[in-house]
């Protein structure tokens, strides 16, 4: 491999040297937030590339830009996160670059411009990059390293004959940094056995006596054939029975082994609830394996690999690892140790390698835990990436015109609130029906979670989110906050630059376009997560509201394009309707207009020549050929010149007259044309992985007919071919359901049972229509106080002593906040100290608390992965009450993911304390019996539940269920309060709440902030 080091000092220009040819591709590193080092700003500005820098990305993400200048490419590479650039990140990006260059862009020279904070680090980067390029078969390319250090590579000159892999190099140089982390030093210095309680629980389990007669085998078989999950099966037995005691002992042991164990926070007595690992094994499989283990006199041969590894560690922790996954062990062996995996030899190799690096715990029994946790550190785990893994890369064709900054394209009403507050115009404020630009109710956290949910790679369109609350509760505010958060996921223009004059579309281009393959020439650069706002109330007077929706989607998405891109989009959209004959006719007419006066002169010249030929005077005979042929030449030459100029003449916005555009707003009856245009528009304007987000506001203000028509239109999106987008709808569910009842009145008579089960036919349709429903929790007292203080500009005056105390509290709180990026288990953040301090800070600086929770949310979301076994266990827990409909299951999974994100918000902090199965119970109620939630939240059945607030109504409902004793008693109690029973008559509802262990299931849902 050919490589060279280029030193740069004062006056060095990346731009000049790149253009001069020191490389065909230059790598520009950035962090996960899209920020560049200052040394690259001028370079990016020279090429006008700021708009292409990813706003949000993950380590290893690449974005390739074709500059269309002598095959020059710029590659944006994400190499830095919160803890800075790691050697593993450099290796990952280098492997991906090698894959890209080999398969896609065979270039001659590349500049992997990763820098380094000092000479030593730059040298290590060099070795890793060249090794990774070699492993990726990128050998026939010149690599030019640019460094500000004179002899940066003299110490660590790459030796390509050295057998050490790029992963091993990265590991060797990463370990000195990792061993200085606080959690590593604590484990190294600890004088207590880290998993003492787990080993003690295992000894208790192992020594449990066999009651004879194949007790464990019979219990395992009964469990297997029952078809129940563990938490349901154990409830079959009285707590005094041997079966219950054994099953509980199994559960307690699992609570020390698996991070996702059932009742971990109750049965695991460690203060931090530490476990061996996240095993990826279902609770059901754990229990079955442990029972078989006991039934076979503690035989390891009957255990699945991960559980076998856990038992081996618990038996001899000095010799084994807490890395339980067999797949992870194979990955480590192949990627890091570069040896063939041998199950019996793997752990011994790991111990030898770490000890050769000089890493040992003070207490040798902790070495297995120490080495396992290091192998799961992000800097090491990233080294698992295999060079042969497929990845996809987005290739963007760079346009010469500089984009204009984003303008307000969301049809936002004027936000007058702040001006009214400044002038103390209370009457104006009271009557101003506009959304708030400030967050006085703590809703920004909800928006953060929703935006993260929409932009998560786990979320796929189509999806409809319903933000449900009565009028005036803040639905529009949340949607505006979501929009603001989505904009942060887009690339930003980071420097003020004067936009270049957009390229003109000419007649020649139009004619050429009509001749060529439009798929190849009409590549349109679209924005990530473009937003469309549709105010249903403003369009309800149209003949067909869905056509108005189509019009707004197409025009708003198009308006967010740059001028040239927008022109290409409209032409591409309407290409089938281009009137070619009209274009030819227009060119001929313009030709004749331009040619008329010169043609008169030329024809006069021709006539003069012919007349001269009629005369035989010598002088006339001499000049007549010149005049006659000159006249003809003038005519032909001038005509060709005019045609050529006409072809190059700008269309001057005349392009629209060659295209037929359906007038959706004026003539709203062309359903077929609308559907075809919408399909094509979304195909052209949508990024498949970052689709448009369409906000529907004021739906509940419309007439019943308009509401029904719009819901049917959105249904067309999510169930038909037009499905590449997300919908976020703010609605008063009770009003919308009542409107649907009016529309489907006759249908409701024929589906009485269905309507009764769901409350009404309108509720039935609404529940089918919304995939993720978010019931806005009721406002708490502190939110009310904060809003009033904001409206009336209440400011508390403090004494010096009080201010000093507050500053001390804030300092402690900010210290805790600083741990968010470094702590492994975010649950450890929520200590009693944090809760006490937060309770004080909320009284005077809730913004600080919200900043804290947004940071926690960001960290939680960025590291969140679906644990299939965890989710499976939760689904199994409620499976008896879930419909077999895929739609119902998908809604449940969507809500579960959403509230797993939301549990870190200050307003829903109680959710994080809840067992996952309890969270699943709450979500099931929201999906299966949403009328119950609305009755508690908004008191929409005033004659049924008693209580002034949601908490009192939840207590009242639980009291009714308790006093009812059985289903018939429950119905009798309900009938005493209301004559018409709808959702209350569902036998499964009574059975579900009665069977739950948590006797205050509904009360805790309100107290946690969920409802």
What does this 3D model show about the protein?
The protein is an alpha/beta fold and 1011 residues long. It folds into six domains: 2-167, 3-Layer(aba) Sandwich (Leucine Aminopeptidase, subunit E, domain 1); 184-376, no CATH class; 409-578 and 659-778, P-loop containing nucleotide triphosphate hydrolases (Rossmann fold, 3-Layer(aba) Sandwich); 580-658; 781-853, no CATH class; 868-1007, no CATH class. The protein is built from 46 helices and 13 strands. The strands form two sheets. Strands 1, 2, 3, 4, 5, 6, 7 and 8 form an eight-stranded mixed β-sheet that branches. A five-stranded parallel β-sheet has the order 10-11-12-9-13. Helix 25 (545-559) packs parallel to helix 29, helix 30 (704-719) crosses helix 31 (733-743) and helix 43 crosses helix 44 (967-975). The chain is flat. About 13% of the residues have low confidence.
